[in-house]
Each structure stands twice: as structure tokens, then as C-alpha cells.
Fold:
Amino acid sequence: MIPNILTFARSFGGNFLTIPAVVDPIIQSRVISLLPASSNFTGGDGLNTAGYRFLRRSDQTRDQYSSRFDVDLSENDSILGVYNYNKESNLRPDADTTAFTVIPQVNQLSVNKQLTLAWRHVFSSNFVNEFRGGIFTSEVPFDKTDATPAYYFALPLVTNPENTFLSQGRNTKAFNFQSNADYIWKSHTIRFGGQAQIFRVNAYNDAAIVPTVSLSNTNTGVALATTNFAGLGGISTGQLGSSNGMLALFGGVFNSVAQSFNIADVSRGFEAGVRQYQPFRNENHAVYLSDRWAVTRNLTLSLGMRYELFPGLRINNGLALEPLIPDAANMNSSLLSLSGTSGVVGTNSGRKNAYYKTDYNNLAPNLGISWSPSYEKGLGKFLFGGAGKSVLRGGYSQIYGNDSIITSINNAAVGNPGLARTAVSLLNLNGRVSTAIPTVAPPTFITPPRTWLQNNAVGVGNFFGTVFAIDPELKSPRVDQYSFGFQREFFGNTAFEARYVGSRSGNLVRGIDINQVDIMNNGFFADFERARANFALTGNAFCAIAGCQALTIFQSGAGSAGRLGVGTGGLALATFNSNLQNGTPADLALSYINNTTNLNNHPSSANPTLVPFVRLLPNPAAGAIDVMLNDANYRYNSLQLEIRRRFTSGLYFQANYTFSKNLTNAVGTSQALFEPYLDNNRKELYNSRADYDQTHVFNFNGVYQMPFGKGKMFINKGGIADKVFGGWEVSGLMQWTSGAPITFVDTRGTYNRSGRSARQTPYSSLTNDEIRALMGTFELNNNIYWINPSIISAQGAASNGFGTSFAGQVFSNVNPGQTGNIGRAIVNGPKYLNVNAALLKNIRFTESIRVQIRAEAFNLLNNVNFVQNTTLPNINSSSFGQITGEYGPRTMQFAARFEF
Structure:
């Protein structure tokens, strides 16, 4: 045991004498003194560090006010006004995730105001128009409530006790003006009008504008080695890491400082302490005309057309760059050019500050038909029930829109270095906290245009610079909706309806990466396999004994034309061998591209004429070349059945069932909508059920007033009898759904790099049906599983790594150069069943006074509904298949209400 790591290190002399003999005073005051005194074993290593759990407040206060006025100015004119005010204040322990304070030091406000004014004018008995306008404002700041220090710490071993969250938020204004007219002419009801919507979103973010000092003694000359512990009987790798972590922490040793910078004004360039500010501007305008034609007493046709205009989203201060695309029809040729450049946003669209061109051609028709058969006898009456008892309906419509356009476009825009938030790091330092923390200088501002080779430079992109383009011809996604159904009345108070409902789109927005790592068309993968075989045979990829194969791409030493170096002057031998063992050629290729020593001779602003030794990217002048475009689709089809009873004789109920399937090539569940393909040449690999697809959904709700008491079938008396037996009512609702889809994944970089393999499926010798048969709820060793644990190894994973196997294994890691053989979303997670019910008793004393007593139960059956903790379980995870949460148990609440 070492009682004091500081004095232990100082005992070795030399550079170690620069470490203080006692805990650094700044660390003592800002870290050690703020850590909790008590602990438990829910975290830490159980020796020098431990865990801590405590309850934090998550208060919410809400104030709401509403007002309305209606005035009839004359027989033909009336006006109305509505004003709503909502203020909400929330403590956010999910934002302040580090401080050990009971009250989180982040508060989120939400102040929403809405004003609506309308004027309705009656021109004649058959012509009415209403003009309506309004404004909705929303201020949503996430405020840091404690003081901001001059710098923050990134700590080893322990949770930072200081709140490192920095303020951010958004202020939104939405204006809506519309005019809607109704004109009745004979059997036609004609509606026409227009709408203008204007959106103003001002987003701000202070993230990372305060320097972060990383406490670490790596590469400082004061790191302990295994030899320093020889006199103590040696030390394990893990304990050595903990020892160095404590030495850096207590001694205040740091090896890097990082800070991000923003631009407030192009003329001043990057400045310290300036927040990121993004004023987005967006509009949508529309006009429409529709006709509802009563062709006959029982046949109605509806026909309409709507025209939508979507001006391109703009950033009002112009602080964004975009790749210059001279020919939008041949976008890829510009993006894959070695001489690619980025300019100020608005260049491609031809409109100042606009990310893409105005979308003009958006005509949205709608068509509907409703027919109520009228048969008085025969088979027709048997099927349709006579006049007014049934109806056949069908319809088709198109809609346009993209609710997440600002977030997704912003994600694309900030990906281009130059005007967006830029991080700078001072590396390889050997500092002490009690001495001066070095100042991080803002990055050099390069006046646009900016070449992609500049993004490739060391310290910027490290030969893998990011380019993020937005298709100048980006369109507002169009969704086609269609349905047809049959409704039939029974018993005078009950209706049954069966309908088909579908929708589809072929131009949803998504982001893809067109600069895909290529390991197949250059000899790289073939040589990787030869090197892997040599390594498996001898432990040396460059062996020269019998059975070894000569390598044609990889060579010992530095790289050269057509060859990639390994060892001295090349990629570290340990990194090379690790990728051979793990079977990850695409990740190995990325290691040759993305580094600070230019192992594959990629061009950059320092050396723009360099030619890669091996062409691993379509465009070596950049790394990821991401594009936001209309490239996603979905198809939704459903059968919907419903039965409902009108409230008669004290009984009402409604029940519906939906059987559906939603197929897509982009799940669209992230706000950024960035969903790159695993292989741009095999886009069909991404076709699957959506993550939110639900095959079966059943809902029921109902109310039953018991037939006892005054005015009822039984005990039809007043007085005490009515107060005891009358006024009882039971109500409830039930929901049963199938579980969400699950996609098994192996995210290793076998064909494309791991950053593009998030949805790569593994290999299995089982059929899809055989895999489905493994699903259920199982318990083993105090763990609950959603899949049969017999297929899980003793280490808790479904695979023990590439090239290994175990008894019962059904999922295997993908072989190098391949992708999985099973489909996506082939099984469902845990089902969901919930019943809520209420029992109430009304006790009436007079005509105007009564008391209501209620008993309510949520999850009445106390059914255990498991939370599906992931839709993408990794077969290499040590907690594969485990269920780690459940929805709430039965909850009862009681209430009393006095009405007068």
C-alpha cells in the first residue's frame, strides 16, 4: 500500500521533484473539498475510489393564463381575440450531470405567449370569410445558475464536482396569417383561401467557450512506470493507470488545454468568450381551393388543390460556409473534386444567406368520395342495413413539409470549418495547476473561400477534414396519403368500421456520406487477408517461411508509392496487428488516412500536390463528405378495425385494432436526419421496418354508469337509497401493443469504417423464424432477458469476439470485407399491456350541490411492462439481451370534488 502517491513519486527524483509533496491547493478547493464524504460500492474501483448516490431535485413550476373575447360588431361582422400565457420553470439534473448538489445548477425556463385575432364577415347568406392572424413566441433558455470559472477541469478517476454545463437556448417567434372563405352554390360548398407563415428562431450556445484543462501526466515526463513498483511486488496495468490518475489529480498535473471559439463579426474573426449565435429565418406560404359536391342525397365528392411555396432556410448573420457547387445537377462531381472549396452560405442558392433554393413546384391535390348505399330489400339491405345505415369512403391527398428542417440543416452547416464553432487544443504540455494556465489563442481566421485542403491540415482535420453539403435543389418532402373504408351501424347505437390506411414518400430528407472508405478496388482488402493469414500462421504478418504469402500493399517501415508502411515510419505495429486480429480492414484503412503524420501521403494546404500511396477515398482532399439531400423513403400500410357505441343506457365504449407495417430506408428518429449508408452501392441493405413500427396495437376505453338509484332501472328511489346505491360509475382504458423492432448489430469496421457501420447486422446460421423463436422473457442469474440466454456467453455477450466461438452461439462477428447475412428489424422487443381504471360515486344533495368521490388505478393489473433499453443491441456487448428497466407498477390515487 502506498500512503501518499505524491511523496512516492517524488522519491524517484528528477522530473518527479516538480510534483508538489501535498495536494495542489487549487485541486483541494475546487475538487477534493467538493466531493461527498460518504460513499458506496455502486461505482469506482472499490479501493481508492467509490460510488455515490443521492436524490436530486427536479422541481417544476407552471403558471398558465388564458383569456378570450368575442364581439359581434354587427349582423355581418364579428371579431374575436385569444391570449394564452404559459410560464414553466424546471430544474434540470439531466443537464447538470456532475455537481454533487441537491439542487441542480441548471434551470430551464419556458415562456410561451400566444395572441390570436380574427375578423369574420358575412357577405351574403351563402358567402362568409374569416381573416385570422396570430403570433406565438417561445423563450427557452437553459441557464447555468452558478458562477463560471476561468477554466474547467477534465478529471481522471472521479466525477467532476463542478457544474460544467454552459448556457444555451433559443428564442422563437412564429407568425401566422390566413384568410378562409366559404361559398355555397347549389349543391357545391366551395372553400378557398391562403396562408402565410413566418418563423424566426434565434439559437445560442456557450458550449466549450471556457477552457478545459485536462489533468493527466501522459507524455509529461512524470508518469510512473511498472519499474517504479518493482520493490512493491509489481503492479497490474489497471492499477498503474489508477496510480498515474491519482498522481495527476492530486499533483494538479495537466497535459492539454482545449477551448472553442466563435465569430460574432467576420471583420473581427474568432474571439474568446463569444457565444455561438444562429438567427434562422424560414417561411411557408400557401393558397388553396376545394369543392365539396353533394352529387346526390347519398353521394358526395370532394376535390381540392393546394399550392405550397417554401423559401430556402436562411441564417441571417451569414456565419456559415457551404461547399461550392457550380452545377447542382452534377453535385457529386463538384464534391469529389480535388480542388473543392467552400464559400459563404447563399452562393449555391443564389440568395443571400440561404442554404438552398426556394422550392416552387408543390401542388398538393386531394380527392375524396363518400357513398351511403340505400337498399330497401334483398342482399343489399342485408349487407348495408338500409338507408343511412352504412357508408363507403375513400380518399387521397398529398402534403408537404419538414418539421425538423432547422435542426437537420444546422447540423450540416456547422460541419464545415471556417465560420462555425472551432476548437483549439494545446497538446503535449507539462503544466501544474498552481502555475499559470496557458492561454489558448483563437484560430487564424481565413477569409472565405476556404479550400478543403485547408480542412485536411494537421490540427484541423488531420487529413480527414469534414465537408458537409446541402443539395441546392433540396425539396420539401412530399407525403402521399390514401385510405378507403366501410362503416356499418348496428342496433341503432353501435357502429363498426373497417378501413385501409396507407401513406408513402419517396423524397424524405437524409444525410449521407459520398466519400466512402474503399478497401475493395485498390488491393487493400486482398492484402489485408494475406497479412491476416500470415499473422494467424506465425504471429508475424511479414513472415517469410513456408506457407507465408508475400504482401503487395503493406511493407515494413515507411510507406511509398503503392505501399503502406508498418512500424518505424509507418503505422504502429500494435495498431496494425490489432486490426488484423479484430478483422477490421476498413478501420485499419481509416488509421492510415486520419492521423497527424500523413501515413498515406494525402494532400493538404501544406502540400497540395501530394498523391496518396493507395487511393482509399474517392476524394483524398477531404475525409467525410456528407450531403443533405432527398434520398429517404417509407411505405406505411395498415388495416384498422373499430367498433364504438354511442352513450346510451349508461354505456359507452370504443375499441380499435391496427395491424400495420412501416418500411423505410431511413428511420428518421434523430433530429439531425444524418443516416449514412453502410455501402453507397448497396442502398438496399438499409431497407427494413422502421424503428417505431408497431405490428399490433389494440386500444379500448369505456364508461358504464351502474343502473342503480333515482332514474335508473333498479332501486329507482331518491333519498338515502339514491345516496347509497345511485351515482356509481366505472370507466377504464386498456392498451396492448407489440414491442418495438430490434436490429442485431456488429458495428466493427469490416466493410466500411465503424463510424458508418452503426446498423451493420451480424452473421447467423439461423433463419429469421428460428431467431424469432428465441424471443421472450427469461430470467437467469438474477438478470431478466428479452432473448433466450442460452445463446449468450459466460461473458454476457452474444459473441466473444471475431474468430472465437462458444457452445450455443448463434450470432457471429462479420468476416472482413463482408456485412451480415440477417435482416434488420427481424424481431420485436417486449410487448406492452396496460389497464387504467376509475370508480367514482356522485352524491347529489340538491339540484346545484353534489360531491364526487373518485378512486383511480394506473396499471390496475400491476402488470410488469419491460422497457426496451435499445433497438440496436450489439452482439459484442457484455450486457447483450438484458432488460434493465420497467414501467411503473400499480399506482392508486383518490380524489374528492365538491360542486356547487
Observations:
- The chain has twelve helices and 40 strands.
- The first helix runs from residue 5 to 10.
- Residues 741-830+871-885 form one domain.
